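Researcher: I'm preparing a figure for a lab meeting and need a structural model of a single chain. I don't have an experimental structure, so a prediction will have to do for now. The sequence is pasted below. Please return the structure as tokens so I can convert it later.
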Amino acid sequence: MEKVEEGDDLETVDGRQIMWRAIVAPTEIADLFDVTFEVMIRGGSGRKDELRREQFRMLRPTWSEDDERETLR
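Model: Understood. Here is the structure written out token by token.
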């Protein structure tokens, strides 16, 4: 989960910069997380910057802490 929340930067083939990150929040169900995924695309070459945001609900048992999982169950 730490890697996902860190995000990353990359460059596209046409030279635009992309920065992404995710915000992870636990739900009331064991191993289920709400994830907000954000991507900033830097315009370059006269284009406008774009911010895109998507919401996901993900089942990720490896992100759960054992004691929290047992409490929710």
